[in-house]
């Protein structure tokens, strides 16, 4: 049995292999562990799995084995996380392995905390070589729940598949872990610790990020809106990482009252919550926003602060509409886009609302597979400014991750801009008004997603095979109920920047009226298979725009269930989540 790399393990006897500049490095023999392949967004497993043997240490070592030495030797790495259970212990392991592999400096957020977009911002601002993010995003946390880790490289973006494939390859051959013999770092105190040539800086997780937000947005405009007595704003941090950002940004800097923030303290188990800002899991916020006398604007963010949900009074903005509305208003309301966005992009299952904005503004437009990492190349190449996904991710090229607080500030900027000349006593333009106006201009793309979580993997795969078979036999103009097929395929994407190809990215049935039914297996679950069914229908007729999405989409949803035989394959009568 291999010696286990735990927080105190560095004192265990092993062979010393090098002592560069006052740092003792030990080589710990290890054997590969199966199944360390990263999904849509890093490696996610139950905490128990990560704590077994050298599971985490193997993966971290495999990352270093996958990089060229000049990418990290004497370089700077950023380390942050969403505050979930096991982060503190994991941070100590990661720091020791980083030092053991010759990294010069680690910048770690106080208490190991730093939101995903903030890690991206710090990597960029501090010109770091990359960073690790300890998070399983919106998955629940605690000893019985999930943990996760992701590697981002120097532009602040998640490692592309070429690197994650290499990491996976190295997890299958890793044989030694290089560990520096240094004590645990006191993560609670800001400051610098030096061990020979290696330095750890415990940094404030907010300041670099806040500075960036001040450069992107007009903070005076935001302050003017937030301080209006006739405008009420609430933010639910879901006991997750944005709790650390909400008070410094919304309260201390923008003047919101402290009681605008709920669940504002990051907790290791997110207060027993499921920190996913959607209509199912952000129940408290939804309740408040649909109550009588509800505030004007409500928002929430997820475990690691990259997702967002936007609500008006009694009104939900679907993420597909959110990115389209932000894009349509960005140039006017957000100084960062004063010259107009360079281009727009969405993930394939996200509704076509953004396409219509790109067409009207005559902007380059891209449709990429699910996964934020696919936007990065386009941003680095200067082709893309604003993008979003139906999965509650919205963001821009200010960082290389989606950004929950950014999305909230973007919406507040739009509201601030539209209402800046409104006198007290005048009716303010609401979130709902902005959405209705947008639909009147562009038409409405009704959209909904049905999730069937933790299905038996075999059954889910059989359903996918059944659909692939159906696609291979399908022909244009074929009738599906009242719908006529335009085409059906398995989405494949060729990156216009580096030519890399991502295939099998989702099964699409696209109909001649623009309606779409899409099936995918989630790449972010940690147990069984999650089937996602995405349904979209375009409606140009303004008189129908107020319709409830579930009502408008009912025939298409029924068609999706029929053609996929989802109930037959999985035994599921109902989805676990509807967004
Ligand atoms: C994460 C990723 C997103 C992705 C979402 C859903 O949040 O960062 O890019 O859209 O998960 O992915 P999934 O594979 O579970 O549908
Ligand atoms: Zn997240």
Automatic annotation (TrEMBL):
Cofactor entry: Mg(2+)
The record's EC number reads: 5.4.2.2
Name the domain of life: Eukaryota
Where mainly found?
Answer: plastid
The protein's matches in PROSITE patterns, at most eight in alphabetical order, are given as: PGM_PMM
Kindly list the GO CC terms recorded for this protein.
chloroplast; cytosol
Which keywords belong to this entry?
Answer: Carbohydrate metabolism, Chloroplast, Glucose metabolism, Isomerase, Magnesium, Metal-binding, Phosphoprotein, Plastid, Transit peptide
Q: Where is the Alpha-D-phosphohexomutase alpha/beta/alpha domain?
A: 36-173, 208-311, 320-425
| Oligomeric and partner information | Monomer.
Q: What is this protein called?
A: phosphoglucomutase (alpha-D-glucose-1,6-bisphosphate-dependent)
